[in-house]
Amino acid sequence: MIVYQRHVFEGGAGALPMAHHAMIRAPGGAALSFSPKAFGITPPTPVEPDPARGRSVLHYPQRIAGLEAVRLADGRTIDASRYPFAESHEDIVLLAEAPGSTLGWSAALAAREGFLFFGLKDPRRLPFTMLWMSNGGLPRWSRTR
After folding, report:
1. Residues in Cβ contact with 135 at an 8 Å cutoff, skipping those fewer than 6 apart
2. pTM
3. Which 8-state DSSP code applies to residue 14?
4. How many Cα atoms within 13 Å fall on the side-chain side of residue 37?
5. Structure confidence by residue, pLDDT tens digits, 2-29
6. What percentage of residues in the chain have a pLDDT greater than 70?
């Protein structure tokens, strides 16, 4: 099965915040890959700083050269391009497109589930890719795991 989606904005005036919001479910794991990025960052604070309400495993804040070496809160380093990299966590990483890039893309290969997600974008209009890695770290939202 192939799903093709395209967004076209016509008319109107002024700035409009926009983003693509792809969500995948891959219980058997996924290999993530992206167009070249300048860097990645985590926000100043974890997604859920209160352990009674949820759990984040990444170090906050941090600047990331590549997903293959991302620091955890406990000091270890993991490869975040292989998902999942931990159980019961909610984490966010923002990836910035490389300067001069004219084609942005994101891919998630879920071999066990038998699918490939592949998204294209114009990095001049959408210069960031946000990874919200949701793997059951917010119990109130994780009832369907």
Report:
1. 83, 84, 86, 87, 88, 89, 90
2. 0.86
3. S
4. 22
5. 777 777 878 888 887 777 778 888 889 9
6. 93
